């Protein structure tokens, strides 16, 4: 979405050796995240090693892997065509865990004649102007979709199987909530105190500040 904002504050999401710009929003927008990543890549001189439009066909251990630990990678160039083989000291597979949408199915879903889509494909709110929208799920992307469509839709609903607290990104003294809650001693409390007590503490203390 063009209005996407990252779910964590820039302090907690930043690389420890490369802090974000001071003028960046506490919760950076998508273009700020892009600029941050590009600035880091430029400062480290890694852009020259990136090759686009390359399809990985095969990754396998070299014949002398036991001695060298090296890998053979076969790739296909999608533009001019042709394949090439290179040998590397190591291989990282970084395709992400949400790169493919997982679409649930429901009984009699085929009888529902209006559009059903995954937030993976949700890019613009214009098609939902003056429509009634139901967002199934209360994860981060679901809440983003609900907030965005509520600005133009006739009515936007959120359907969830269990209750949840929806809180602001910014808390006490205008500090990002994750910098308040994600402290070592609080994380240790999660392993010691009952979940119900911690929920009560969060609702009666932190959320009322």
UniProtKB/TrEMBL annotation:
InterPro entries the record matches: FAD/NAD-bd_sf (IPR036188), Flavin_mOase (IPR000960), Flavin_mOase-like (IPR020946), FMO-like (IPR050346)
Gene Ontology molecular-function annotations: flavin adenine dinucleotide binding; N,N-dimethylaniline monooxygenase activity; NADP binding
Domain of life: Eukaryota
Keyword Oxidoreductase: yes
One Pfam assignment: FMO-like
Family: Belongs to the FMO family.
Entry-linked Gene3D superfamilies: FAD/NAD(P)-binding domain (3.50.50.60)
Enzyme Commission number(s) of this protein: 1.-.-.-
Gene: Fmo5_4
Cofactor: FAD
Entry keyword set: FAD, Flavoprotein, Monooxygenase, NADP, Oxidoreductase
Name of this chain's protein: Flavin-containing monooxygenase
Broadest EC class assigned to this enzyme: oxidoreductase
